[in-house]
Amino acid sequence: MNSMNTNYSIRDEIRDFWSERAATFDQSVGHEIFSEAERKGWQRLIRKHLGEGQGRAALDLACGTAVISHLMHGAGFAVTGLDWSDAMLAQARAKAKKRGTDIRFVSGDAENTMEPRESYDVITNRHLVWTLVDPASAFKEWFAVLKPGGKVLILDGNMGKENWVKGLQKFWTKVTGKPAASHMTPEMMARHQKIRSRVHFSTQMPAEAVVDLLRQAGFTDIVVDRKLADIHWAQARKMPFLRGLERMVQDRFAICARKPG
Hints:
Elements: H1 3-21, H2 36-50, E1 57-61, H3 67-74, E2 78-83, H4 86-99, E3 104-107, E4 120-126, H5 135-145, E5 146-157, H6 164-176, H7 186-196, H8 207-216, E6 220-225, H9 229-236, H10 241-249, E7 252-258
């Protein structure tokens, strides 16, 4: 089988999946922000690792509907949001127009951005890394796009890791015949799992594995931050009980790394 064709097939499927979810994406807790407490948690995290924007150039990869892009803009960064889904970008542009922000949006592939070399001070992304077909190449691309001394901030998690709440959810489904509450239909969940089975991190994505690939790409001063309880608690309070409980125990993390220079 031709690996390039396989890769393009996976990427196309990823793009189409999120394009179909674009119209309702912001309705889900964990996507859009639904409380001031959560917003303050994200602002704290961004400033902790990236400092104040002060007009520095930031590239928000796989920006979706621009939730992180707006947080970065609010911190004073000059933000470019990049996404491969035109449907997501349409939502992002509409939101930016409504809020009166000057965020720039471009269509592009997070694994091959086509952005100028050494042109950004900061790169951000949320829930992107697990979808990458070739994260090693993607991290090299991000390294090239960053200015010397620039930083990447990855917001993600090891969602495939088992925890006791997942066991409780399975028990609930077995006893009641009802699946745990989800923001996706069973059909969309099946497509999501099909995609996941074909990407690089097809089962688990421990932070340590991401760190190793970042280091191989040339990044240094890599920090794994799991102190996200304020964000997760704010999200959990807006979720059904079992989903909120799972959010509190999942292995979610922020990884910040620097390009030497």
